[in-house]
Amino acid sequence: xxxxxxxxxxxxxxxxxxxxxxxxxxxxxxxxxxxxxxxVHAKIVVVDDALAMxxxxxxxxxxxxxxxxxxxxxxxxDQVGAVANWIETLHDTTQIGVPAVSTFRDTLEGVAxxxxxxx
Length: 119
Known about the structure:
Elements: E1 2-6, H1 12-27, E2 31-35, E3 43-47, E4 51-55, H2 61-66, E5 71-75, H3 77-88, E6 94-96, H4 103-114
Parallel strand pairs: 1-2
Antiparallel strand pairs: 2-6, 3-4, 4-5
């Protein structure tokens, strides 16, 4: 599994809140890929080259029930391949892995995670 995230995002507090979960995911074997070429707001899921979901919806209760955003689900080799190929174009502006942080930063990230339902 690969997870792409902007580094940095456009919200410092969100960067803090996601630090610990990204390190946990990386420790569990997820390939965390940091996009350093700007902010990509799209959320994209490609499943077994058979189905893709593309859109702007954050997958959390607050976003799903309060925000008015949308995703599209596509299927078929050509459409799913186009989505997967677009993701691959991001690789020139990425760094793989999550950097280690100081104890102070880790504590700050833990405090920021408590605000996660509000972000």
